[in-house]
Write the structure tokens for this entry.
Amino acid sequence: SQQGEEDPQALSIQEGENATMNCSYKTSINNLQWYRQNSGRGLVHLILIRSNEREKHSGRLRVTLDTSKKSSSLLITASRAADTASYFCAGAAGNKLTFGGGTRVLVKP
Amino acid sequence: DTAVSQTPKYLVTQMGNDKSIKCEQNLGHDTMYWYKQDSKKFLKIMFSYNNKELIINETVPNRFSPKSPDKAHLNLHINSLELGDSAVYFCASRATGDYGYTFGSGTRLTVV
């Protein structure tokens, strides 16, 4: 079964705008990870946040984690056309990484 | 290049055939995985090996059999292929600890 839901399922923004997507998960996790998948390609690891962390930054990415609500958010600031992709959250528990359904992001130039 | 590499990239085959997908990683990771991505982009874990030992075996038809000859290789053999097996299969690996996974570029399997 899927770890949880991602919201929205699709997002269309103009270049330069910020993109925010949310993820909810069902079970306890050790960490939560975000991945990007360009069309027809494999998944690329973006950022990992541990269960005892609340916020993390990496370049134009900001991720938050609320373990009490079992939710996370990914913010991409100052989006670029190259950010067009599907973004997946995934909860890690033990040796297993379970993915959400993904958010398709279209950044229009 | 350090990476997770899968072969073949595309596989078109008829129902009832048997096929294999190969995966190799040169990252020195101990744990490797097979994931299936369906037409709606949902990713589901299938199997995981840690240093050649099977540690995760999800509810997968027994027509699917993984094999790990060493910790750098994880192959997937599929017997008696069915239309519903059509999907993209991803191999991944990770180091021990809180690290992200490294995914291969995927094998698109089409059963006709």
About this structure: The radius of gyration of chain B is 13 Å. Chain B has no helices and eleven strands. Chain B touches chain A at residues 4, 31, 33, 40-45, 48, 50, 55-56, 90, 92, 98-106 (CB under 8 Å). The mean pLDDT of chain B is 95.
